[in-house]
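To whoever picks this up:

The nightly regression suite flagged Hexosyltransferase as changed. Nothing in the input moved, so I suspect the structure step. Input below, exactly as stored in the fixture:
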Amino acid sequence: MRRAALALAAAACALGAKQPEAATREAGHGKPRKKYGKPYPETKAACGVVMFGTGDDYIQYSARNAQRIAALAPGKNWCAAQPDLDRVLVVYFHDNKKADTLVRKGLGGAAPRFELFYLGTRAKPRMAKFEALPGTKRWARDYKWLRPQYYKRSPFRTTLNMDGDAVPCGARLVEAFRAFAESKAAVAGLWHVGASYSGLNTGFMAWDKEKADPLLAAWADDMRRAILANRTIRHDQPSLAAALNATSGVKVLRFSEANVCRVCRADKEGHCASTCAADSCWVDHRDWGPNYNKAGIDGIAKVDGGTKVSKWKLTPAPAEHEAPG
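Regenerated output under the current build:
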């Protein structure tokens, strides 16, 4: 009897010791699983968000955004392919060996609710089927090559990429997944119209992994050709636009500026008084250029040093929205 009791106690202890590890795995923070014999994100779901960071400062402030997204509680039935999914899973890709420390600093010491996935170096990637940077030259914006690579390797069937300056407007964020599923498109995003090209804004872009595969492959091909021919590349969106023009049968959903909000209201000093200025906003994604919002959404405000002001002209707040004097 005593031996049986001791055996049961030992089994209970062993089970208890495994529980934290199991909980971590379930949350998507465990060791990467293997795919094609190489590391691959642990997180698995039909729908989810991916992010990418490389620089120290960017990783710190965008980690707050990833944390905000991962903490959303949208309820069920927002992911058409997995109706019981009741939270938004996030995988944060990076190639910075200090990312764990930087994320903790950005989160004020809190543990991330999202999976951090190390891609390896650009010359020697460690993720399954991830292509190394073409050629041997390095330059300031060579991280742009990584965009089509991690898009193709997303662990989600339906993926939403969010840059660090794309701030979710609460649980309304999942309306992007609903709209995308209803459209039956291959890709979706806000349509950028510029002097040199017109195409999708990749900073808030959704895609179906299977339907978009030919486009993502063509995008990587176009970037590879440009890099090998010019030994450099400054942006990834022109290559995506060229690939979209060259790839037939790719259905595109153009998100509305009523949902992907680009301009905020101003306070009396001309600074952003609020984000997500309208109830229709899924995300606040202004074009910040090199600057960040003085008013400070946690995910946007500069981590070290002074905060700065957006380059966009701000819309004055209507009188009825002004605080009483």
